[in-house]
Amino acid sequence: MKGWNGRFLRVNLTTKKIFQQNYSEEFAKKWLGGRGFAIKLLWDELASGTDPLSPDNMLMFLTGPYSGYAIPNSGKLVVAAKSPLTGGYGDGNLGSAAGPNLRKAGYDAIIFTGKIDKPSYLLIDNETTELIYAKELWGLNCYETEKILKNKYGAAIGVLSIGPSGENLTRFATIISQEGRAGGRPGMGAVMGSKNLKAIVIHGSKEPPVADKEALSKLGKEGYASIQKRDNYGFWKRQGTMATVEWCQTASTLPTHNFSEGIFECSKEIDGNTMEKQTIKQRGCPNCNMICGNVILDTNGEESELDYENVVMLGSNIGVGDLKQVATLNRICDMLGLDTISAGSSLGFAMECSEKKLINSDLTFGDFDGAQRLLHEMAQMKGEGALFGLGVKAASEKIGKGSSDFAMHVKGLECSAYDCHLCPGMSLSFGTSPIGAHHKDAWVISWEISSGTREDYGPSKADKVIEFQRIRGGMYESLVACRFPWIELGFENEWFPKYIKATTGVDYSLNDMWVLGDRIYSLIRAFWVREYGGKWNRSMDYPPTRWFKEPLTKGPLTGKHLDLNKYDNLLTEYYTKRGWNNKGVPTKETMIKLGLEKEYLELNKIL
Questions:
Q1: End-to-end CA distance of the chain
Q2: Cβ(301)–Cβ(327) under 8 Å?
Q3: Which end of the chain is more exposed for a tag (fewer CB within 10 A), N or C?
Q4: Which class would CATH give 240-419?
């Protein structure tokens, strides 16, 4: 087998048994890697109804046949588990030295089960693996943890760690690497903490197997050169994702005051132009020549790596209009291991509950000091943080009093930073994302607005969401590769079958990749249905109630909001095109066509 190492590293934390497991070429070709491997392993091995924070949950770190080579944007890995935030499938990706090191150590994934008796970390040094007790690291933040481990094992290692939020089981705790690279929004850090696993240290020095080394080297150089020649390359290098702040403000899609509005009066104070003036350095993932991480100094003179999502959710969404203050909140989240999107949503929700006197609190929008306090409390799950660290869905269920109408989530995962009062296509993307309201699978909002179809609920919206899900959530998440060269600079998807042919020797067409994406999405949906059983219904694919009930009151779109009946028809159109029934469950015919007959037989037992 070329391209794939053909080996998983299995770690039973309860028994402390570590062993290598070979997998077949047939498995590799059908599921490719990353998210594909993750959902198949969860479906096959995780008992239905498993408590996500129990030792029985699986925690996986997965690469793909694109990972770790000297080709554009190949420094990613996927982390996956059953989510403690949503109760369904959860994953995320992050770029750091950990992914390439894992591949060079000879493994394509690490699969954890069980729970170790004391706080520990896993050390992987090529063939040598060891679980090491680390009580002295428990309680430290992610920056401190990584610094200690790199001082001990060398700067070239990959480190994945959790902060206090993961240790204390904050439901949207993430996994952090390299002081700002984060992955696993649906609570993957909490799963790691539930297993007493503080960190993973990875060093590898072997080159992953390659089918055609000469062709891969040539394609890699050509790909890097092609990216640098793109028209938008220079501007991207200066602002990265932060240009989106100005664009969203113009389009009235900038989340403001807990997604109640789409424009922010202080948007210019937190946009990419303001950031450019303050940037002191840039950071990126391994094997990347379109670096997206811009670092500024926060209110304390500390470095904070910014991008669009964290700036908006910790800025306009909570009424903070000072970029240095936003940077402080972002650094706190990264150090504590809190997902910045969910943290910003939980802050906004808490502020609105407070202002409406639904809770006994003095929080208000724009309260920078209060936001800092609540972030620390959420990471400790104490005080008000014990409630809002559960996520906005669970918090709203406890608060009641109509608060669910402005709890901004889908299936329990808080919405990414796009207000969709008048974006039915992006609303459908949030509604049908395989992990909850996340943008990474189908960022159709730019197409929706630029195409002039913003108020349209026609079939083209369902077509575009599925198209993007196949590309972004299917191909990229399984290769494992970064989507930015394509979506931001127009780096053609036709490059990727060539890269995979060079690494694996296997001929994949783009259509093969789309079928792979459909297979993954249908099995992930089957997993959700299996975990929710009789509670599953199509309303779980609806975007937040606020966008239907409460029109915008500011800007050029004043009075606009989503139409529930039209959205429901669009959702039916999406189901039909996916080959799912009216409840959003894959049909027998669809599952068989995608090579999931065995999986359908299991799913059918609960239908």
A1: 39
A2: no
A3: C
A4: mainly alpha
Q: Dihedral of CA 562/563/568/574: which sign?
A: negative
Query: Where do the H-state alpha helices sit in 121-232?
Result: 142-153, 164-167, 188-194, 213-228
How far, rounded to the nearest angstrom, does the alpha carbon of residue 507 sit from its chain's CA centroid? 29
pLDDT digits (tens, 9 = 90+) for 444-501: 999 999 999 999 999 999 999 999 999 999 999 999 999 999 999 999 999 999 999 9
- Coil, helix or strand at residue 141: coil
pLDDT per position as a tens digit, 167-208: 999 999 999 999 999 999 999 999 999 999 999 999 999 999
What residues contact residue 360 under an 8 Å CB cut-off, 6+ apart? none
What are the E-state strand segments in 223-337? Answer: 281-283, 293-297, 303-306
Sheet strands side by side (includes 281-283):
281-283, 293-297, 303-306
Q: Is the pTM of this model over 0.85?
A: yes
Q: What is the CATH number of domain 427-604?
A: 1.10.599.10
- Bond from prior residue into 529 cis (ω within 30 degrees of 0): no
Helices 459-468 and 564-578, interaxial angle, to 10°? Answer: 50
β-pairing verdict for 76-82 and 7-12: unpaired
Q: What are phi and psi of 92, to 5 degrees?
A: -170, 165
Q: Domain 7-203, what fold?
A: Aldehyde Ferredoxin Oxidoreductase;  A, domain 1 (3.60.9)
Side-chain half-sphere exposure of 98, counting CA atoms within 13 A: 30
Given 3-state DSSP classes, what are the helix, strand and coil percentages for the chain, each rounded to the nearest 5? 45, 15, 40
Task: Name beta bridge partners: 112.
Answer: 11, 59
Q: Are 595 and 587 in contact (CB under 8 A)?
A: no
Contacts (Cβ under 8 Å, ≥6 apart) of 510: 493, 494, 496, 497
Longest Cα separation, the chain: 66
Sketch the domain layout of the chain as residue ranges. 7-203, 240-419, 427-604
